[in-house]
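dumping this here before i forget
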Amino acid sequence: MTSAFRTRIVRTLTLPLDADAFPGGLPSLLVRDDLLCWTRREAGLVGFGEVARFTATGPDRFLEADIWWRHLVLEAEIQDTVEWPGTGPVAFGSFAFSKASAHESRLIVPEIVVGLRDGKAWLTQLTFDDGDLTEAGARAALDRWLGTPGVVPSTDAGTDAAPVEATLTTGSLSEADWMAAVAAGVAEIRTGALEKLVLARDVVATVPAGVNAAEILRQLAVRYRECWTYGVDGLVGATPEMLIQVEGRTAQARVLAGTLDRRDADGMAGSPLEFAERVLAGSEKQRHEHDIAIQSLTTQLAPFSEAMNAHSEPFILELPNVWHLASDVKAELAEVEGHVPTSLALINALHPTAAVCGTPTTVAGALIRKLEHLDRGPYAGPVGWLDAAGNGEWGIALRGAVIESPTSVRLYAGCGVVEGSVPEAELAETWAKFRPMLESLGISS
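structure:
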């Protein structure tokens, strides 16, 4: 475990901005490869620079990060005239999927944060330095990071990514070997050892002209508006799945399980949405997989909740590449040992869910390590942000990739495997899930 925690006190200034000054919302600020971001539709948070960092590995990574953050903000000097979720001290975070992973989980405290929500915009400056924090100083710092003094940049993020020359290579397993792993997983399920297993695979895209992280994020933010676009330290993507969102005492989650490639509707009778409802909601396999995911989340969240409700029936989530069976869960948090649990404490209890691991999770986790031959790193781990007031949003890092060098990026995708799974169909599903990243890179799929 390492950290940049200092004996000096973090100081923050948050001031309102004119929301009308953001052409296209926060995606217009996605102009640097080293930025931090969490956006959905036109809203969210974008961070620039770094004043502190915490890293950890192992089974206690969430709790260690929680302790570090609470110590950091306990004595913070906070000037905040906006007082909304995401104002004041904020950290962006990304956590490894596995407690056995060598990948470092991290919290990053930026120097500058711009937020936009429900028509309200704000700017926060964070520092450990002495001296007065002023509105003029905060605005000047933002201008330095944007490189466009006095104006907010606009972009052409609505256009398609320009086609690029690139090569795709298989990662840890070939397609044939990965399908063999799926078949082995189905065989284990049929023994009764587990109900569901989620298996992931990776491919590597090599782009000789260079990987442009800012362009990837802009493309994802515009193409996948209903997803949460994230960027943390080279981890980029647009996830449709919310692990936990905390605002005050209210916690919400969006659970997905059950997937259908939109290309499968080509030539089918009826509307595309009717086709999705028939194939997904009408499939015993897909409903079973979804029920397992919902049960996993609600069981783990129940001890922290006074009340909880979920959709009695899943709905069809329509995305540009796929349809999902989806359910939203909402809970009122209870006090545990005298205080409302933090978002990181909830993540510690919830992760990994059946949606990204399987059930029982202990059995599924061991089988993943045996069959995947892959360290997932941050893929399928929690990614998002938290503030000093206990608010936060943490998605599951899906539909994403890790930029490994200036010219290479590793893409990840996974599938839920149940007794009725067919390896060839699961392989095709991974390609549908790779599509958002391939498109954002300008690679035809």
